[in-house]
Amino acid sequence: MPLAAIDSRRASELIWRFRDLRVLVVGDVMLDRFIVGRVTRISPEAPVPVVRFQSEHVRLGGAANVAHNIAALGGRPSIVGLVGRDRAADQVREQLTATGIACTGLVEDRQRPTTEKVRVVTERNQQVARIDYEDDADVSGAAAQALVEAATAAGRAAEVCLVSDYLKGTVTRSMVESLLAAGRPIIVDPKIPHLDCYAGATLVTPNHHEAEAATHRRIRNADEARLAGRELRDRVRCEAVLMTLGEQGMWLTAPGAEGSIHAAAREVSDVTGAGDTVVATVALALAAGATLSEAALLANHAAGIVVGKFGAATVSPEELIASIPLPT
């Protein structure tokens, strides 16, 4: 059964409350680099396209993109994550500073590179190749301790904590336990190998493929989504589950609220970073006093906007309000 739509007046009230709400983002900080060019022929050396370079630009990715989304919606994010000592780390700091986000929670580990995804794309936004620079081993030693200490300190000042787990080594059981000790609501954008680490979280937000892998179930209709949501909530031992199901929308399993949310997407340009927008919106909505169902409905509208943009994009409060239809 679909969840009831959120009233536009209530939505506007919640969205304007986002301003200056403090959200701690902990997770895998990344830099997204785009090399853009034009393809006119296939290489004579191998059956691959030849890309004639036109431009290059960088954007925040992973947990850094989540923080950027929170800032764009009016919130006050703080971020705790891991970087190396390299050019990519410098560019992450520059990008964060440009959006008004402090970099004091970034822990430097000289033994590993900053996670960087380099995408070669055409002028029509078609991806040709991707190169990943990363070390995805779990952080350890002094760097691990520094991350926990930074998260513990920042968690005390936050109204909501958000874990952005991309399996790049930052998120560990001790990290999540330190956040739980702060006593704040915790939203987790999860990865399947770490499901046991998230026990006690307020909400986990797996995508369609992650939910199927975690429950060993196909999810093709409402009944299957209901069963998967309940099973996943029991396994993770969290309060609620919000599954993002692509073109099928979302499914929420929460105390007193269970049902589907129809996709709000208009024309899809790029789904990169849509999950970051979902968790950022949910975190701010909960901090603003929304119910879990209201937070999920707002996040669905935000995701519908961001997939119409290229790359890891953000949504403004004005865009989000405008996307919610007035009552008829």
Describe this structure in words.
By secondary structure, the chain is an alpha/beta fold. It has a single domain (8-30, 62-114, 135-322), classed as 3-Layer(aba) Sandwich (UDP-N-acetylmuramoyl-L-alanine:D-glutamate ligase). The chain has helices spanning 8-17, 63-72, 87-98, 141-157, 173-180, 208-215, 222-236, 274-287, 292-306, 317-322; strands at 22-27, 29-42, 49-62, 76-83, 106-108, 115-122, 127-133, 160-164, 186-189, 203-204, 240-244, 250-254, 257-261. Strand 12 and strand 13 form a beta hairpin. Helix 2 crosses helix 8 and helix 6 packs across helix 7 (222-236). The longest helix has 17 residues, at 141-157. It is globular. The mean pLDDT is 91.
CATH architecture field: 3-Layer(aba) Sandwich
Q: What is the percent of helical residues?
A: 25-40%
Number of strands: 13
Shape: globular
Largest sheet: 9 strands, mixed
Would you state the CATH class? Alpha Beta
Percentage beta strand: 25-35%
How many structural domains can be distinguished in the coordinates?
A: 1
Structure classification? alpha/beta
Helix and strand string, N-terminal first?
Answer: HEEEHEHEEEHEHEEHHEEEHHH
Fold-level CATH name: UDP-N-acetylmuramoyl-L-alanine:D-glutamate ligase
At a glance:
The chain has 10 helices and 13 strands.
List keywords for this structure.
UDP-N-acetylmuramoyl-L-alanine:D-glutamate ligase, 328 residues, single chain, 35% helix, 9-stranded mixed beta sheet, 4-stranded mixed beta sheet
